[in-house]
């Protein structure tokens, strides 16, 4: 009788591979799945003139559970704010909102928990009225935050909120908030671009330049469940078991905690990566390049050179879903082994390979991946992934608002389920707006600000010397280095 290795044995063997052999294995796994199995296109639902109820997607179930646990949290509110300068036609804006809501089932969706499992109910009609508020310019940031934090009723809806803050006659801030149950960051980009297009058509008195949607989010939800049937989910989970074997204990960042109470709040440190510094990352892909620098930074801070970093993905793997409003977001685990301390060129290649494999299996829900990988758990810490990377490619503020200047207005974060998230937003001028988001009760502000400085300094050094071992590249800014040298010399030096 032939012995068959158990999944645990296989994970153990993979976990003991050298960094070089693991990289080869991951590359081969990625090559095998570089062309992921293409599911059939979602079948359009029949036209509905009445409410319809369909099953929830994996993401919606996850969001529903989170909302039930923390109903007052604004962490599930997808928000953008745009400063519009010029002569604004409020009636045209209201027509734009009504038109966009009518176009998308997702914006007319509520939760129906009358049965054993929560379902999504698409309302035949839903009214979203633009709320108009006169606000002193000095109080605008607080007003945006107040609109963002207002609670939604998932059972009654609507799950989209639009407010127009009037700073003066030619200066407004448009705030758009949607619940994560019905939308994600990509969907917000769709909504804002279509609002701008319909607004422009209304002002110009021309036809709306948007074709009807053949596919809606309920179609995609049904297709998602079919996709993960017939053994396809299990094949993806086999990949994740192999990739994440021996991933180790949760990652601990050695950053000081704050002195005062700050439970339940989210810290944000914003910084900018200038275009000249970001340019060398773009040929190999901005996301892999930034994630590679981030991974090296985390390794340098923690001493853990075999890293698992989460990466948020949009999950729109079919062309038909590009303009659909719904929650497609998933979190994938990107594991990179740098225990041999290679140069940055090699490290970046390993990150790109890991990303390719993760994207080829991104349809597996993250919670299923966690269950399959069975990582060590620590009470009070998120399993498998404690740090993450999120690249936004949604140019909200530069959609064509006829006769108006448009600029993105900063919005607070409220994502405190992970220890640290690096958010990056490429801007049209080549710069990258970045932010570290973190639970304010876990880390003090000053060390996180220093972390941002170390990221930019390390990135410049890695790109300047891509053949130098990543463990040997300086990451302290010049001013910080001078201070440390002065401390080392002492007062009498």
From TrEMBL:
InterPro entries on file: CAT-like_dom_sf, Condensation_dom
Biased composition (Pro residues): 37-47
One Gene Ontology term of the molecular function aspect: catalytic activity
UniProt-recorded name of the protein: Condensation domain-containing protein
Residues annotated as domain Condensation: 56-485
GO BP: lipid biosynthetic process
Region (Disordered): 31-56
Taxonomic superkingdom: Bacteria
């Amino acid at each position: 009788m032939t012995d068959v290795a158990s999944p645990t044995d296989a994970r153990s063997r993979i976990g003991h591979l050298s960094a070089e052999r693991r990289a080869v294995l991951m590359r081969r796994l990625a090559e095998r799945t570089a062309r992921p199995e293409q599911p059939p296109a979602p079948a359009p639902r029949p036209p509905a003139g009445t409410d319809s109820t369909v099953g929830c997607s994996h993401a919606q179930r996850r969001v529903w559970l989170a909302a039930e646990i923390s109903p007052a949290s604004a962490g599930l509110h997808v928000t953008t704010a745009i400063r519009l300068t010029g002569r604004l036609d409020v009636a045209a804006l209201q027509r734009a909102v009504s038109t966009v809501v009518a176009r998308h089932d997702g914006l007319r969706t509520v939760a129906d928990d009358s049965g054993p499992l929560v379902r999504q109910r698409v309302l035949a009609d839903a009214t979203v009225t633009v709320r108009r508020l006169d606000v002193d310019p000095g109080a605008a940031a607080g007003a945006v935050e107040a609109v963002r934090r207002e609670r939604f009723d998932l059972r009654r809806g609507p799950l989209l909120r639009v407010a127009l803050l009037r700073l003066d006659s030619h200066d407004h801030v448009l705030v758009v908030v949607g619940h994560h149950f019905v939308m994600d960051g990509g969907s917000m980009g769709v909504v804002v671009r279509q609002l701008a297009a319909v607004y422009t058509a209304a002002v110009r008195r021309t036809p709306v330049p948007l074709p009807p949607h053949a596919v809606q989010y309920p179609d995609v939800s049904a297709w998602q469940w079919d996709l993960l049937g017939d053994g396809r989910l299990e094949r993806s989970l086999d990949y994740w078991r192999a990739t994440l074997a021996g991933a180790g204990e949760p990652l601990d960042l050695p950053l000081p905690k704050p002195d005062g109470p700050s439970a339940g709040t989210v810290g944000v440190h914003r910084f900018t990566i200038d275009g000249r510094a970001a340019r060398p990352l773009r040929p190999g892909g901005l996301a892999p390049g930034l994630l590679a620098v981030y991974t090296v930074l985390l390794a340098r801070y923690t001493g853990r050179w075999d890293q698992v970093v989460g990466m948020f993905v949009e999950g729109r793997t079919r062309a038909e879903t590009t303009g659909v409003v719904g929650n497609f977001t998933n979190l994938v685990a990107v594991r990179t082994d740098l225990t041999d301390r290679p140069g940055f060129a090699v490290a970046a290649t390993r990150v790109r390979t890991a990303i390719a494999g993760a994207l080829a299996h991104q349809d597996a829900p993250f919670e299923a991946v966690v269950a399959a990988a069975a990582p060590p758990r620590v009470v009070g810490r998120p399993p498998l992934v404690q740090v993450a990377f999120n690249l936004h490619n949604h140019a909200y503020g530069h959609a064509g608002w006829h006769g108006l200047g448009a600029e993105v207005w900063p919005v607070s974060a409220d994502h405190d389920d992970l220890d640290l998230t690096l958010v990056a937003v490429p801007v049209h001028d080549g710069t990258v707006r970045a932010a570290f988001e973190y639970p304010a009760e876990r880390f003090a502000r000053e060390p996180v600000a220093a972390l941002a400085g170390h990221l930019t300094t390390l990135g410049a050094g890695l790109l300047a010397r891509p053949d130098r071992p990543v463990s040997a590249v300086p990451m302290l800014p010049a001013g910080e280095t001078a201070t440390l040298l002065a401390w080392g010399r002492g007062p009498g030096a």
